[in-house]
Amino acid sequence: MKSTELNALTEQFPLLSELTALNETTWFNPGATSLAEGLPHVGLTEQDVKEAHARLARFAPYLAKAFPETAATGGIIESELAAIPAMQKRLEKENGQTVCGKLWLKKDSHLPISGSIKARGGIYEVLTHAEKLAIEAGLLSLEDDYSQLLSPELREFFSRYSIAVGSTGNLGLSIGIISARIGFRVTVHMSADAREWKKAKLRSHGVEVVEYAEDYGVAVEQGRKAAEADANCFFIDDENSRTLFLGYAVAGQRLKDQFSRQAITVDEQHPLFVYLPCGVGGGPGGVAFGLKLAFGDHVHCIFAEPTHSPCMLLGVYTGLHDALSVQDIGIDNLTAADGLAVGRASGFVGRAMQRLLDGFYTVDDQTLYNMLGWLAEEENIRLEPSALAGMAGPQRVCATASYHEMQGFSARQLNNAMHLVWATGGGMVPEAEMAQYLAKAR
Ligand SMILES: *Cc1c(COP(=O)(O)O)cnc(C)c1O
Q1: Are 169 and 195 in contact (CB under 8 A)?
Q2: Tryptophan synthase beta chain-like PALP domain: from which residue to which, for each copy (predicted)?
Q3: Confidence of residue 246 (pLDDT cuts 50, 70, 90)
Q4: What is the pTM of this model?
Q5: How many angstroms separate the CA atoms of 297 and 92, rounded?
Q6: Is residue 151 scored above 90 in pLDDT?
Q7: Tell me: the pLDDT tens digits for 380-438?
Q8: Is residue 119 lining ligand 1, measured as CB closer than 6 Å?
Q9: Whose CA is nearest to atom 11 of ligand 1?
Q10: Which domains does the chain have, with CATH numbers?
Q11: 343 lines ligand 1 (CB under 6 A)
Q12: CA atoms within 13 A on the CB side of 145
């Protein structure tokens, strides 16, 4: 974009000067509405999410056998919820700002199979595709015990088909591992920022990894092209997939069930704030959709991005969505938060979800490293840098009176609040790599 164009845009949208200066920025969304008003714009319904729950239940017997680490939960891929009071105190001390209410962590970082939030959407989309192929071929019916998918006949059937995906790392890990286990031939197109150990792990599962010197957008484009050349190849489209989105959305009802087992109340007087690290938007968007369906207007979803990759904030704030990338306004999309290194947001997610999201903010890489170190020290929980993005959110929410006014929160409601930081990855980071992350904390 020419500098005259950028100046005009910045005049119209003053926050752009904060973004281009790479300052940590918070924007509470004046366009946020009630669920009733926002839901019709999503283009997906509660029924769609119910079907996703039912599909995952059909696959549970298969997953319990194919991935023994899921046997304890009956083949349901779900993560734990942890109160983190020591981290709350540490954040308050380090930042000189209280966290109104209580701080909790949702440990998608430790989801089985791939150790990140992508174990929700990525795996769900591959299972959906496998089910469709097998049913169309008359090899499976909805009433069957899906553990028969482990049979050599079905694996041979799936080996005639292939899967392709472009990824910064974690989506490739999820899709690669599940696809290879089912029997698909699978190619993962990896962007430059993808970690070496993720590529090595994929290759050890028999996945073909193609590496690019460019960023996520290029890896996705190349993956899409390669898939177009092969009629038996299915391309998983992280930027536009409704299926991925629905795989993430089941988290909402699951969390609600978890809360009721632990006697945690969410209602008007006990609001729930959820902080979701955002890359292209499918993961946090899908989870937020599921949360809204489960908790209605009592849940408030806030997206977190690196200062160098604020694509969703940029898209929703300007209303330009995927028509504008961070590179267009002179931001480099280079961040240690590799899962969030996305320059152009999903157009689908921003448009679908913008009325149901309370806010967006950016975090500096060094802030991510610091919080990574504090969480390891205080709670002995280790995450990858991306997964800390949500941890900066509660203090932004608690400190911003204009947001409290916008939403009409009373002091009492805020003191009763639960702040749930969605930890999106890190459970499989090798020790040597983790030591390097920890060494960067101050
Ligand atoms: C992919 C990812 C996200 C964000 O998901 P998107 O669908 O890209 O928005 C957040 N954290 C981690 C660790 C991820 O891998």
Answers
A1: yes
A2: 95-394
A3: very high
A4: 0.97
A5: 28
A6: yes
A7: 999 999 999 999 999 999 999 999 999 999 999 999 999 999 999 999 999 999 999 99
A8: no
A9: 424
A10: 3-113+243-439 (3.40.50.1100), 117-241 (3.40.50.1100)
A11: no
A12: 7
